Amino acid sequence: MKFGLLWRAGTVAENVAIEPPLVNRPPDLAGGTVYTTAVYATLSGVAELEVPQRPDLSTVIFRIRPADGSRAAAERADEASRRLLKRINGHQRIVLSRTVVDSRYTLRVCVVSHRTHRDRIAEALKIITAEARNIPVA
Question: Contact 36/25 with Cβ under 8 angstroms?
Fold first, then answer.
């Protein structure tokens, strides 16, 4: 099974208030890592996204927020989430994976390497939030 957050060498992204990289980062109070908590907090603050669950360990799931509670709105949001995944992965700077949670198409960010640096997380969040804000929900 292929999933996660993979990186290619590149430029440093904007400085974001995330804890510095630590070898063997300690878990935070939510049971994940400092970076997982930062991803969760950032994505939870994006109006176009819904983050249906608090992260378990290293994985944060998210998807496009439907316009209302109808099944038709959820289907439109799922289609927008599919397009969002293609747009994010199209940057070729990060690779996200997908799954289905509660019958909804859902994207995953997984930060597992203890060598991940804050500039990589900042770049990922910049890409994800910019694309989420620009994805049309038809």
Answer: no
Domains of the chain from N-terminus onward: 34-134 (3.90.1150.10)
Best mean pLDDT range from 10-24, 61-75, 104-118:
61-75
Do strands 49-50 and 104-110 pair parallel, antiparallel, or not at all (unpaired)? unpaired
120 burial level (CB within 10 Å; 0-12, 13-18, 19+): buried
Cα-based distances in Å from 1 to 43, 56, 98, 124, 134: 24, 18, 11, 21, 29
Give pTM, 2 decimals: 0.76
Token pair of 62 as six digits: 């998210």
